Amino acid sequence: MVPSVARYGFSDAERAETQLRGAGWWSDTGPGAAEPIVVALSRTPDPDLALHSVDRLRESMAEEWESLSAALAEDVELRGRLFGVLGDSTAFADHLVANPADWKRLTADAVPPRNLDERTSALLEAVRAEGDGEPGTEDGPVAELCGQRAISALRTTYRGLLLDIAARDLASIAEPALSSVPYEEVAELLSDAAVAALRAAMSVAVAELRQVGVHDTPRLSVVAMGKCGGRELNYVSDVDVVFVADGEDDIATGTRLASTLMRIVGPAFFEIDAALRPEGKAGALVRTLDGHLNYYRRWARTWEFQALLKARPVAGDRELGARYLEAVQPLVWTASEREDFVVDVRAMRRRVEEHVPAEVVERELKLGHGGLRDVEFAVQLLQMVHGRSDEELRSASTLEALRALGEGGYVARADAADLVDSYRFLRTVEHRLQLRQLRRTHLFPEFDDAGGLGVLGRAVGFRSSGRNTAGQALVAEFRRHAKQVRRLHEKLFYRPLLESVAKVPTEALRLTTSAAEERLSALGYGSPKGALRHIGALTAGMSRRASIQGALLPVLLDLLGNTPDPDGGLLAYRKVSEALAETPWYLRLLRDEGVVVERLAQLLGTSKLVPELLMRAPEVLRLLADTPALSERDPVEVAMSLRSTVSRYSDPSRAAAAARSLRRHELLRIACADLLGLVEPAVVYRALSSIWVAVLESTLDMAMRDTAASADREVPARVAVIGMGRLGGAELGYGSDADVMFVCEPCNGADEETAVKFASTVVEQVRRLLGQPSQDPPLEVDIDLRPEGKQGPLVRTLDSYLGYYRRWGEVWEAQALLRARAVAGDADLGERFCRAIDPIRYPEGGLEEAKAREIRRIKARVDSERLPRGADPATHTKLGRGGLADVEWTLQLLQLQHARDVPALRTTSTVDGLRAAAEAGLLAESDANDLIEAWTLATRVRNAVMLVRGKPGDQLPKKSQERVGVAAALGYPSSVDTGEVVDDYLRVTRHARAVVERVFYDT
């Protein structure tokens, strides 16, 4: 069977067969020996266009056609290069038809110009230029051809140079065996071709000036900007330049030379855009070096320094160009210190986006969302902020800079790799679009243009497979890359840390020893030498980790300088960093999430408890970037999660360790939210109490299962845990013990003795497991409030408790029962216990006067005997005047006296009880408010002391630095004097003590 032409991918099979026969590549039996040629044609982006262009070329070559046809049969490289170009570009087809001999440039034996000098020489030869030196200098080559003849010669030669590049760029599409050329190499070759074009045009411009009597060549340098400056030029692009003259005497002739150069370059090669010069299009075309520097120092806007990132002298006076670059570079690398620098760059990007028509924004490769400018703006902003201190970032190439940002740790390696991949893809698509007609375009085809998408998809390298066409694959990949670029652009371009780093002076980034000590001292560090040791340890070596620390520390040092203890905060940061050195996400999180750095600095410079917990619960660090997750977690959900996790363990030690770990996580989360002012005090008490209850509940459950399993029998007793004191009131602090009592009753047919013995064993195990030594705040289970105190049994039955209280119970024990609440274990038994003790704690007829006097006597004795030696009774939060004990005993006396008749007083909550007393008329509203304010403040101060010192304390600190920390933990502004904090505490507690004197002591 004779193969059909259509099987080779030609749309118009009839015309294709005619053209193939004309070329000698098809006969009645098919392609025959020419099949490799036909197959290569079929692989091109547009086989019909490729074959049509071959047909045009054949007609223009006459007798040379046979040589080309024979070469195509033998030369794989020629096939790939010629058909790759003809299948994608009508412009190069036109060039080859007009210059048919240029096909020989594409053979395997052809040696194209290999570097910039050889490309420059080829263009100079086209205009018969002679002379040594740099084109455009006094002894540089001067063209013999001028005017239109020179332009025509330059245009043809330049197209030949572009043909060399494009043919090698596209060859692997038609012949997959050939190696493809990376995008970066293509961009560098195109950039070199453009520079060669500028140099050749300069020689023609000098010749034209000499024709009109200007024989003294001015000292003029042509500085490339933009993509040409960065050696990342497109096939078709304006070339941005700036002209620099050596002195005022060169301005006039330099302007004539520059104008003539631009007039030649436009029709011969590409458009020259000089709008990036000082004052833009309204400014002088040529300025002296001093004129440029004066403008940049006094008037330049932020975007102009951004443009200078890619400045590169390319033509004219080389020495002058080098001086220009040396002079402007320091301005580039200090521009980010300008006020609102980061804001200005972001505003510029938004203005660019706003000028893109809405109907094409999704298809705009360059300026649209997820386009090339998103990558370039993000990279340039990061370069200018971090490049001040890191010279590795000072590259004019977008991809080189991206790689350096990734290697230096300023950008996650994965993010840098993704951006490199996306940038290459988008630039490759841009190149293929421009090759079609060698026109400047950045617009992706319409998404419903199946034909255009198919051609472009194959040109980019996609092939149809199954039901998916090359066009569909291209669209999917384009959308993926655009989405990826936009996501990473927003992540990097709007990174809060950038603004903080930009505000740090450049000299502070470099941190030379003497200057650094002065700056650290000015920031508030008490020991600058010690701080420098920490900085040196964190940034030592050439590792990526050290680079990231080098970028973070200038900001962190400033942030820590605004905390109560900068030196302690920096030491804590070093310890945390060393402890988490092998945690892969730690530094990445700090680098990418500015809010985490700010919050971490505040926490480390205020609290000693937080860093200790953070080293063992680093996962909480992630929550600093998520305010709701940090501050709004439901305590019930937390408790359920803890109990569920612990229940999975059969080994008691592992179960207890899991409970400790989860408690540590939750304790740290609450502490962070508290110190950052994200939660109310009442939320802190409830959350701390809830997690303690969950630990008790899960440990009790595990101990019961283990004890029963050890005895190889069913559980013989129900056990309930009764919370007392602050646990009963759900008012625990960070360092609080858990005051509890255990009650049991037999079940599953066991007798009372067996049940009590079993329950006692369980309680011993609970206390042992929770009381094991730990670096965390202790988990002390205090059962001293049980009947008979330390001498009494660990566990009693309900009847035993009631028998004791009815026969021997004292008034202080009834008072302690006011805060009894079932918190864990058997819920029904716990509730029955609480109901059973109601007559004891809420006595019928109220409290006898003798017992009221006994309570007052006990309180007076506590005030005089229990206060620690040396403690200040005015500022002791627990036993001091107007402190916690004063307020709580006052409420409890009212509860013993009136709770039987006022049900609202039957609460274990201090604040709720005081409000109920006021509503019942037992307290004046103002008195209740004074007591609540004092109790709340004393509780907060107690918690703040624990957070700041890392260990419990009931005394308002005497050390100045600790008082500053407590003030910060309480939410006072940093400017407040600590004396004001003490005065506030004394005022509030003084008012409360006055109420206590009247209500409790009845004086």
TrEMBL record:
Residues 1-497 are annotated as: Adenylyl removase. It catalyses: [glutamine synthetase]-L-tyrosine + ATP = [glutamine synthetase]-O(4)-(5'-adenylyl)-L-tyrosine + diphosphate; [glutamine synthetase]-O(4)-(5'-adenylyl)-L-tyrosine + phosphate = [glutamine synthetase]-L-tyrosine + ADP. Residues 81-326, 598-834 form the Glutamate-ammonia ligase adenylyltransferase repeated domain. SUPFAM superfamilies: Nucleotidyltransferase, Nucleotidyltransferase substrate binding subunit/domain. Its cofactor is Mg(2+). GO terms for molecular function: nucleotidyltransferase activity. InterPro entries: GlnE, GlnE_rpt_dom, NT_sf, PII_UdlTrfase/GS_AdlTrfase. Residues 505-1003 are annotated as: Adenylyl transferase. Residues 347-493, 874-999 form the PII-uridylyltransferase/Glutamine-synthetase adenylyltransferase domain. Its EC number is 2.7.7.89, 2.7.7.42. Involved in the regulation of glutamine synthetase GlnA, a key enzyme in the process to assimilate ammonia. When cellular nitrogen levels are high, the C-terminal adenylyl transferase (AT) inactivates GlnA by covalent transfer of an adenylyl group from ATP to specific tyrosine residue of GlnA, thus reducing its activity. Conversely, when nitrogen levels are low, the N-terminal adenylyl removase (AR) activates GlnA by removing the adenylyl group by phosphorolysis, increasing its activity. Belongs to the GlnE family. This is Bifunctional glutamine synthetase adenylyltransferase/adenylyl-removing enzyme. It comes from Saccharopolyspora halophila. The gene is glnE.
